Automatic annotation (TrEMBL):
One of its GO terms (molecular function) is aromatic-L-amino-acid decarboxylase activity. Its cofactor is pyridoxal 5'-phosphate. PANTHER family: GROUP II PYRIDOXAL-5-PHOSPHATE DECARBOXYLASE (PTHR11999), MIP05841P (PTHR11999:SF70). This is L-2,4-diaminobutyrate decarboxylase. It comes from Aurantimicrobium photophilum. Its EC number is 4.1.1.86.
């Protein structure tokens, strides 16, 4: 048999055919759930009792393994795309993005080099270019889709330090005893992880009453001592509260001191697409690099982080791996995604987002994100209205943090466990300044006001 473009198709035996159909059938079934079952974790002893030895010399056969996955293993995972999964930052991929993830898997494209992946890299780069343009970055900005925000932040910071170091060496200046970067005290844990990996120090800058990093606080904290500071990281939407730092003011301070400005927008930069919140992100235009996770609020499946550099060449000289067998790949005309982050082999994980954008158009994204924000503001009003509940902070994006009067951590935990056990929602306790609270992180277009009100009603 041949396909319309002349490729040969192999004839598969009946058993393979059957497995293929069953796998597609399962994928179809999973995608048809409305909503998917929330499910929940099981203990290791429960799983031991329910799951036989699966990795054996003979194998157990695909049909059986698939059935074990569907009926036992999958049920012991929480569906992140359930509309009432409101913990951490959920993941709510579009139909098109999920479908295309299957195609990426079926295509075996090496996404690390232009030589092997040109068509895929070209499409991924269109998405990066679009993100850069939305952020107000100049032409030529670009980067790579890495596995997640943790790796994106690390890769950007390594490029920042490399750039600072080269600048000092080029002018014959001595290197600082310790390298440091500054970020707000509410910045994401991945920055501490990056500092550990890089063996550098963090200068924590206190936030203002609204939870934002400001330009003044940055200046004041450093008190004119910028020695060893190779980057300032501002957050475009904190994970816990969805608070956006004063990006423009912070960016201006970094320019005055000639220091790399990185914006961690893993969750929040998506909100630059929404009319209501666009203005909060004007300062990203000043950034030397930013990240945003499509698996958070750009409706793409796990796992993807778009890392964008204002001047990608600075990322390239930092991260390119050199080896005799890799040198065939180094053609200056060609864009090798591996060169722009701490990674080599990669799947073209930006493609599900590309296909989804191409399918629905950018306007649908703006609308969906705006709708999440309006829902967050609306449920915040309902929380304000209820005498037994208190908003911890006014939401800026789509995270709503609140407390129940008189509740201790045990009360939140008991309530949260029951909510999950009843299959209603996944809303875990959180805390702020040692005080327990809970939060709704809303990034799923299927999350409804009514279901959020129902969840509030269960807090008794
Ligand atoms: C989620 C998040 C990260 C880490 O991203 P991963 O994809 O989980 O590695 C970093 N920064 C912020 C602000 C985040 O919300």
């Amino acid at each position: 048999m041949t396909t319309p473009n002349g490729n040969h198709m192999h004839t598969v035996d009946l058993e393979t055919m059957k497995l293929r159909e069953q796998v597609f059938e399962y994928a179809r079934r999973r995608m048809n759930y409305d909503p998917p079952p929330l499910d929940g974790p099981k203990t290791i002893s429960e799983l031991r009792a329910a799951v036989p030895a699966t990795v054996t010399e003979e194998g157990m056969g695909g049909i059986e393994a698939l059935s074990l996955f569907e009926n036992v293993l999958a049920e012991a995972t929480i569906s992140n795309d359930h509309p009432n999964y409101l913990s951490f930052i959920p993941c709510a991929p579009t139909e098109a993005a999920t479908l295309f993830d299957l195609i990426v898997s079926a295509s075996t494209i090496y996404g690390g080099s232009w030589m092997e992946g040109a068509g895929a890299v070209y499409a991924e780069n269109q998405v990066l270019e679009w993100l850069a343009t939305e952020a107000g970055m100049p032409e030529g900005a670009g980067g790579v889709f890495v596995q997640g925000g943790t790796l994106g932040n690390l890769s950007a910071l390594v490029a920042a330090r490399h750039t600072a170091k080269e600048a000092l060496l080029a002018t014959g200046k001595s290197l600082p005893a310790r390298w440091r970067f500054a970020c707000s005290s509410e910045a994401h844990s991945s920055l501490k992880a990056a500092a550990r990996v890089m063996d550098v120090d963090i200068v924590p800058v206190p936030v203002n009453a609204e939870g934002r990093l400001t330009g003044e606080a940055l200046e004041k904290t450093l008190e004119g001592d910028w020695d060893g500071i190779f980057a300032v990281v501002a957050t475009g939407g904190t994970t816990n509260f969805g608070i956006v730092d004063e990006l423009e003011a912070v960016g201006k301070v970094t320019k005055a001191h000639n220091v790399w400005f990185h914006v961690d927008g893993a969750y929040g930069i998506a909100a630059m697409l929404a009319p209501t919140t666009k203005h909060l992100f004007a300062g990203v235009a000043l950034a030397d690099s930013f990240i945003v996770d499509p698996h958070k609020w750009l409706f793409a499946p796990f796992d993807a982080c778009a890392l964008v550099y204002r001047d990608p060449e600075l990322g390239r000289v930092t991260h390119t791996q050199h080896a005799e067998y890799l040198d065939a790949l180094e053609n200056p005309e060609e864009w090798n995604p591996s060169d722009y982050a701490y990674n080599l082999t990669r799947r073209p994980r930006g493609l599900p987002l590309w296909f989804s954008l191409a399918t629905y158009g950018v306007a649908a994204y703006r609308e969906a994100i705006e709708q999440n924000i309006q829902l967050a503001y609306k449920i915040a009003n309902e929380i304000r209205r209820r005498p037994d509940l208190d908003l911890v902070r006014d939401p800026q994006l789509s995270v709503v943090v609140f407390t129940k009067k008189g509740w201790k951590l045990e009360d939140y935990t008991r309530w949260s466990n029951k909510l999950l056990a009843d299959g209603i929602g996944f809303v875990v306790p959180s805390s702020h300044k040692g005080e327990p609270n809970t939060r709704f992180a809303i990034v799923n277009p299927r999350t409804s006001y009514e279901s959020l009100v129902e969840i509030l009603d269960t807090m008794v």
